[in-house]
Amino acid sequence: MAVVGIGQTKHVAARRDVSIAGLVREAAQRALADAELTWADIDAVVIGKAPDFFEGVMMPELYLADALGAVGKPMLRVHTAGSVGGSTALVATNLVAGRVHGTVLTLAYEKQSESNAMWGLSLPIPFQQPLLAGAGGFFAPHVRAYMRRTGAPDTVGSLVAYKDRRNALKNPYAHLHEHDITLEKVQASPMLWDPIRYSETCPSSDGACAMVLTDRAGAARSPRPAAWMHGGAMRSEPTLFAGKDFVSPQAGKDCAADVYRQAGIADPRRDIDAVEMYVPFSWYEPMWLENLGFADEGEGWKLTESGVTELDGDLPVNMSGGVLSTNPIGASGMIRFAEAALQVRGQAGEHQVEGARRVLGHAYGGGSQFFSMWLVGAEPPTS
Amino acid sequence: MQRPAPRSAPGPLRDIAVVAFAQTDHRRTSDELSEVEMLMPVLHQVLAQTGLKTSDIGFTCSGSTDYLAGRAFSFTMALDGVGAWPPISESHVEMDGAWALYEAWTKLLTGDADTALVYAYGKSSPGSIRDVLTRQLDPYYVAPLWPDSVALAALQAQALIDAGDTDEPALAAVATRSRTAATDNSHAQLRGSVPRGEYAVRPLRTGDCPPIGDGAAAVILAAGERARELCERPAWIRGIDHRIEAHGLGVRDLTDSPSTRLAAERAGLFERPVDTAELHAPFSSQEVVLRKALRLGDGVDVNPSGGALAANPVMAAGLIRIGEAADRIRRGHSDRALAHATSGPCLQQNLVAVLEGDPR
Q1: CB A108 within 8 A of CB A125
Q2: What ipTM does the predicted assembly reach?
Q3: Which InterPro entries does this chain map to (chain B) (predicted)?
Q4: Phi first, then psi: what are they for B314, rounded to 5°?
Q5: What is the pTM for the complete model shown?
Q6: Is the pLDDT of residue B2 over 50?
Q7: A81/B contact by beta carbon, under 8 A
Q8: Smallest Cα distance from B158 to chain A, Å
Q9: What is the pLDDT of residues B134-163, one digit of tens each?
């Protein structure tokens, strides 16, 4: 399976100039243009987004069928919480890999300005604990647990935010373009959920991301280099239970191990050139470096601190600016997957990593319970 | 044995079958149960039929909608009920469980897994389903007018009557036949003699409409020899396809269902006759549309379970059609059956699966 077309919208706080249909169509048309294909070349559409309450439209694939050229075609709607953008791409991948269809359009979006995500997450339900503090309130204690467990100095989170926001300046599609960003400004930003500061959190964005996936025959016709999938996997574990490790969930480790097995990766730190990682709060970079096997337990923060994950470092992480700079929630996972593909196609522009041959795209969701990942390469897999 | 119709990328397909099916007793309300509590017995039953444990399952996929639960990420709680530990390979569609089954089928086709657990559930009782379903409509131009699902179905029914495709007594006969068939279905919500009732929205009477209720269902799929190990007579999926139509009712011919016809063609339905059809037609008038699109003759046993007119747990009702068709094959009551699922107003999106038992 190969990626031959990628399209994103310019992510912003509010796209008041387009409807939801207009937003998704913009990304889809860009992906088609990149692949030099038309709507008629698409056999099926797989669409994903985070909860329907975020825009207030129930099962929006029904309304969006026309806008995405899906009339008369199969259309699937995936929803796996924050990991959905990645999962959606993998479901679309299976349609090609399982030889059900030759060329598939996959797309994920969120138009958060249409409603209020915090409201959407906080509907009162009997007999369940309310998430009154939003996502940051849920994740902050797990960041604190990581710091305590590893002895990481409390400056590491700000380094990640400073790096990602600078990387975003090189990505024309990124939401936050903070031209005057300094490390001091990040460190001086207000504390929201201790230890997470305002500048260490993701924004709320409107945006969509689309990809055209195809088989070997389709890739052979592609006018531009294809990104080839070498491995992809999803793993889930329960939200809450006594044995759960919120700092480094087993589902994340298992998912990465499955992807590495498929791709023949023996040592991820050595064999993978760059990573687009789902980091909605800055501390999740060192946490996921460990969870994904790039660092030993307790050592992830040292990679970050030593500059290894910088754009010009030995293992660049979130070259695009990441979720910290752009977060249309349902699309965020697919943007990670798409940015990984852009890198191995050599088409990431100013945030291109020279010689990136194998890049990992990573997404997670729910209470650190849903994981989806793919590893894409510049060359087709040999098997 | 026949293979499905050629696809856009023909290649080696694995034989995949439904090997187990379970459903709840569908009821008007289930106040005393959470969604997870409603689902759990069904999961246990379907696993028990095969002797499999959660940890034996290669892939799990579910269908549900947050709008029934009234909360974001409602499916995460159901996952806890599955017992996803150690972590499992799992996914979810915000669609009827029939589409979750489709996703699982594609996963098995890739060879990444040999077995799949598919489940779906929905509780309509806590809210007003007629109002809730209006939120599926175009959010800018149509949803603000709150046209409800019964009113939209009535538009379709009137179009059929105007076209001379049916009349009110014929619709009543569909409803009566369905609910008479359901007398043999202990899970059904409406059974036996049900009055035609008053007009709900003309020309549809309450008897032409589905019962509102809560329910869940689960299916296990298996590939190749694994299916034969798990089930005496597996229901092989010979073809499965789904298609969507335009959303705007004004650009569709409501008396026809081209998406159903196309899905049926791609699923290989028209290659040989079927003996059984489980149709997801929540309104009596929709059976008229589907019979025409699927070219079903009088020799076909349509909705021997009673269909959606006897029980329509939203998000599970389509998966139940596949499960019911598969059960007919597994019990030897059918050799080649079709199952259909629908989504959206007036049959906007349709899935067709063709199931077969081994030759006898």
Answers
A1: no
A2: 0.97
A3: Thiolase-like (IPR016039)
A4: -60, 135
A5: 0.97
A6: no
A7: yes
A8: 23
A9: 999 999 999 999 999 999 999 999 999 999
